[in-house]
Amino acid sequence: MEVEVAHPSQPNASRFDESAAAAMSLPQPPAPQQRSGNTRSGHTSLQQKRPAPVDGSKILRNDEVYRQLFEAQVQLTDQLAGTRWWRENKPAVKQVKSSRDLSLPVVRNAAPATSRGMLAGRQADWTRALENDGRTENPVVARQTAEWLDLVSAETESGQHATEVADLPDQVRPSKLRSDVIDRIKEKRRERHNLTLEEMHQELYQVGVTFEPLIVQRCQSLHETLAKLEEELDRRLSPLATNESLMALDQHQLLGLWQGVAEVFADRRNAIGSLDEDLLALESDRVTEIRRVFHSYSEVLERVSHLAPAELHRIVDDEAVQMNQTLLGNQRSFADLNARLVMSELDRERRMRAHWQDKITEWRAGHVEVAVAGFHQFVQSPQVQSPPSLESILSNMRAEQSEINSRRLELIEELSSLAPPNACKSGVAAWHQKMQQVCKMLDETNQKYLQQVYEDYERVCQHCLEAINAR
């Protein structure tokens, strides 16, 4: 029976050959046929016949445990070989097992029992016994029972293995101490392994030292660009600083002012976008450099062979996971920086546009107030309130109306002379006709001067409209 040990399948398992050879060089009894040859060939045969680990076997990761288990297996194998040799070469003692006593050997008397003839004592008793006598042993049945018991008690191969393992000693003491060459080689490899890891960390640190100033320089360049654009933005918005400069602008200048401000904000957004692209490019270069460092030092660590490839890959993977977390944190910081800058620019542009629109409203209100005040002053001027042409028209109208009215009064006075007997029909008709002519003349005069007044007011209103348009 072999002791199953989960040996590492890595190349560094060969380091234990010297220890195995030292353990197997102990003085042993003559080996069986399958152990012929020197100790190293026996060790090789042991490695070739080593059973594969079954499912669920625990794979240890400590090289010291591997070495101890391997030495223990070699010692147990040697003890097992000695036990097998002793069992195969011990003096044979024939035991005859019967139904009465299966453990005591039969001691035969060399002198023949001639008094009973050729039959044994129990056989002779059976011949003298009655038929169907249950108390007398039947020799045929006894022989068949003994053969059946021998067949049942025959040891199987697994039983022999169990017996051999049970015969092994509880504590196996090696005949000599093992050499410390393996320990010194292991310590040397451990030092080289730690030194390589330290060099890898130093080179990774140098990669960070190389790329960090580039990132800082690019951020400072963006800061300077934004500062220059900030000055340009202040210069373009300077007309909105005071009411005097605001009111001095015309409508075309005020509406065109925002176009220049929008161009400045577009330049700021482009600068922020170029920063994000540059940071991502630098980060990509850093990832490439870090990947190169990991590949190169992984090969070096594999050549050192201090750890098994699986354990080494796990350590490198842990380092890579930590570095990936750092790189992801950098990318997250870059994305957060870009988002903050873009949101800040959008918010500032929104606030600037709202300020510009407020200034437009203020400009319009100021100009409306100025126009209303000027128009009110224009309306209150003597040219509008009492135009000279209107006074001339009214004076001429009053003069003509007074003349016509005097003629009408004369006709009314003539009416008193038409009393009988001087009154006649023809005289009254003539007076009536004259009165109609005077009244008609008065109406025509009124209509004429009223039309002149309307024309004068139209002229004044036209002047007012011209004044409004001029505002």
Automatic annotation (TrEMBL):
Residues 33-48 have a biased composition (Polar residues). InterPro entries: DUF4455. Residues 186-469 form the DUF4455 domain. Residues 1-58 are annotated as: Disordered. It comes from the Eukaryota. It holds the Pfam family DUF4455. PANTHER family: COILED-COIL DOMAIN-CONTAINING PROTEIN 180. This is DUF4455 domain-containing protein.
